[in-house]
Recover the amino acids of this structure.
């Protein structure tokens, strides 16, 4: 079977034993050199594809070339991108998906049949916390572009949540503004 695959690859699938002698020596060397040249061109093209993806989303520089190629292969399925989101965003352990708000679909079958339309509506953290995003992230773009949009949504949401928490802590009418109470709360997290 392996010999048959090699014959097809080399373009010599219909040769008889006598014809094999024609593909020896210089002919065989030229044929193999041509295949090696083609392979090198393919590898260079793959490297340029990976580099373009990394330029679109710089966090991809921290992933292996194999991971980036796998990411590019599954770019239209948002659920398949979850492992890559975990690798790119420290502390993110999962994503929460929903169908667009303009649809009345919400069964498990609807989710399976419309996986390409799913939008990220929240993220799950390492401590089990769930953070709803301010803006949904649709999977209408390439994977690096989608990850960039997810990063922007995460930054915007975290900025808003942090600002709201800071304002709540600094509110003079709030009982949570007491410095001793804050220290006690922080001490609980250290244990």
């Amino acid at each position: 079977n392996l010999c048959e695959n090699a014959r097809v690859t080399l373009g010599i699938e219909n040769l008889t034993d006598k014809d094999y002698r024609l593909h020896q020596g210089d002919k065989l060397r030229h044929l193999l050199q041509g295949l090696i040249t083609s392979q090198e061109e393919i590898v260079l093209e793959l490297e340029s594809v990976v580099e373009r993806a990394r330029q679109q989303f710089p966090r991809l520089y921290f992933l292996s070339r194999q991971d980036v190629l796998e990411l590019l292969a599954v770019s239209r399925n948002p659920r398949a991108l979850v492992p890559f989101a975990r690798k790119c965003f420290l502390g993110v352990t999962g994503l929460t998906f929903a169908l667009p708000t303009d649809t009345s679909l919400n069964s498990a079958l609807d989710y399976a049949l419309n996986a390409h339309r799913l939008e990220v509506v929240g993220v799950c953290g390492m401590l089990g916390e769930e953070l709803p995003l301010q803006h949904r992230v649709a999977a209408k773009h390439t994977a690096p572009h989608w990850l960039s949009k997810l990063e922007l949504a995460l930054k915007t949401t975290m900025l808003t949540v942090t600002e709201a928490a800071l304002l709540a802590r600094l509110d003079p009418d709030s009982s949570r503004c007491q410095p001793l109470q804050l220290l006690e709360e922080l001490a609980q997290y250290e244990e």
Remarks:
- The chain has a mean pLDDT of 80.
- The helical segments are 2-10, 17-20, 26-56, 65-73, 82-88, 108-113, 143-170, 179-190.
